[in-house]
Amino acid sequence: MEVTKIKKVFQAFHFEVKVQSTTLSLPIIFQKRYEYATLNIMEKSFLLIKEKRSGSLENFVKQAQAIEKQVNKDIILVFSQLSDTNKKKLMQIGVPYLDFQENAYIPQLGFLFSSSKNLPSLNQLLTSTEQRVLIALLLHSSSTVIDMEKISQVTNLAIPSLYRTFKVLKNRGWLTNKHQSYQFLKPKENIFQEAIPFLKNPVKEVTIISDDDYQKFRREVTFKTSYLKALSYLGMLSHTKQRGNYALSKKEYKTIEKELEKNVFEGHRIEIWVYEPIPFEYEQTVWSIWHQENNEMMVDPISLYLTLKDDDDPRIEEEIEILNQKIIDYLGGNNAS
Q1: Are 244 and 226 in contact (CB under 8 A)?
Q2: Are 234 and 165 contained in the same domain?
Q3: Which of these three, 74, 102, 118, is where a domain ends?
Q4: CB within 10 Å: which end of the chain, N or C, has fewer?
Q5: What is the C-alpha separation between 262 and 248, in angstroms, rounded?
Q6: For the chain, what is the domain count?
Q7: 244 and 180 share a domain?
Q8: Are 138 and 191 in contact (CB under 8 A)?
Q9: Is there a domain that residue 337 lies in?
Q10: Are strands 34-41 and 268-273 parallel, antiparallel or unpaired?
Q11: Whole-prediction pTM
């Protein structure tokens, strides 16, 4: 738990507090997923709970309330940055919160503080285009000057479109513009962690296609390995080889949709994404990738993480935590494809 940041939040409100990280005797899933600290303020004591990696707000609230019952202590949920929408949701159900942007709601103490620092745009999810560009930047740019031409090729976006998106990312505090070129304002691994609450699962819908259709169209559209099959290549998760897990952009899927066999119940699982999966080559030495069949292409690791991070299957949760750390390590190593 980032105790210093929490203390600074309350100092901004002119309150004296004591904050101390703590460990609890809880089920292993709660120990792995959350960080804990004790907050003493105005002769009251609270348990602070913060996610180690961001998931759905609903799941966080549900599990935090279960923890509250087990420890018999009032809780406060802690966030790096909370959107106006999520602040409203938490207030409506009476769940106390605070974030590092000086927003706090603690009804037991009559607290409701809302920072004026947050720009409206910072509280919104990134658009599909903005998300795709940010992921491309993180995976395909070094820590120095960003190569606009390279990102244009990776994303298939024109330079003027990129400039518009870069301005949005600059407003969020992730890029800076110096000497007529864009650079990262912070380490890439920090940007990734800050951005997670504002990135969405790219999967719009899931369908099943027959193997005959897969074989027929595999040279017309780009099926990229995704879901559990991709995760199994990056870790220890076992996966059946009988059926494939693939991702297609909504645009590509539309080109073959009318010709696909209808009412298919067994076959290949196809995720239809709101954006085209980003090209990415996994280096064996960096990712420790297991054997792939026929050198098939995979979706990029950040998008894969976003498709699975809210899965409640304990086996998948463990592998996703490992993938999350691999991404952070990769970005921190100043890697760029």
Answers
A1: no
A2: no
A3: 118
A4: C
A5: 18
A6: 3
A7: no
A8: yes
A9: no
A10: unpaired
A11: 0.67
